[in-house]
Amino acid sequence: MRWLITGGGGMLAADVLDRIGLTGEPVLALGRSELDLRDARAVRDFVSAYRPRVVVNCAAWTAVDEAETREAEALAVNGHAVRTLAEACERVAARLVHLSTDYVFDGAGVLPYAEDAPTAPLNAYGRTKLAGERAALEHGHYVVRTAWLYGATGRNFVRTMIELAGSRPFVDVVADQRGQPTWSADLADFLVRLAQSDLPPGVYHGTSSGETTWHGLATEVFTLLGADPARVRPVPAAAFPRPAPRPAYSVLAGTRCELMRPWREALHAAWPVLAGKAGRQCVVA
After folding, report:
1. Cα–Cα distance measured from residue 190 to residue 167, given in angstroms and rounded to the nearest whole number
2. Range of the domain at 46
3. Is the confidence at residue 282, as pLDDT, over 80?
4. With CB atoms counted within 10 Å of each terminal CB, which end of the chain scores lower, N or C?
5. Total domains, the chain
6. Closest to 2 measured CA to CA, from 32, 28, 35, 34
């Protein structure tokens, strides 16, 4: 089958490209400079001409706090552009796999959210991503919600903790928000397998299994570095006031499709790549 990856310059797109490369099937990854999804005519023309069999949409506005004051701009990327892409895919009988987020939930729950759980985003980013979900589903496509994504490239929490371990004696990390750290390479494999499967369109949850806090994840990173995990100090989210509220509990359940391996196991598997990309580890005593 012929693949198209949008948002081709991002962390996840790089892993999806690598994963599809293992199949030997033709694939094209386009960044915003090559295909701006906000340009409806360009999207329709390109999809019509290229005629992909599967489109994996990794493009997104991901600046959560900025979306609070620029919601219309975030919606243009996370909502309206998804509708255009979904319609274009429908015209050529292509399967769209669209990425979404745990932030479509309000975090008031105490049990993992199933795929059909009521959505109630707390912030503008979550609202715009929910608009994109609805657009994809209305045209018979796939939505994959993921969470707490980290990988070998780009800025992400794990790489930040690796850097801070080498520059600060102590790091304060939020301990009252729970979620599922997810390795982008594992998610890429999940997306490709879903696109190749006979599973029906709809919402799927694509995260590592298990759950932890940001503090728990940071502690594991320090441990892998050989640093004292006690240097990671737990603090409440209120210690870091931010424009966009975050859900306190956004753990996702996999009721339609099995979740990926446990988050700690995935982090350990990813570690050689993560530590190598971060460069030499200079651990502060």
Report:
1. 35
2. 3-156+180-210
3. no
4. C
5. 1
6. 28
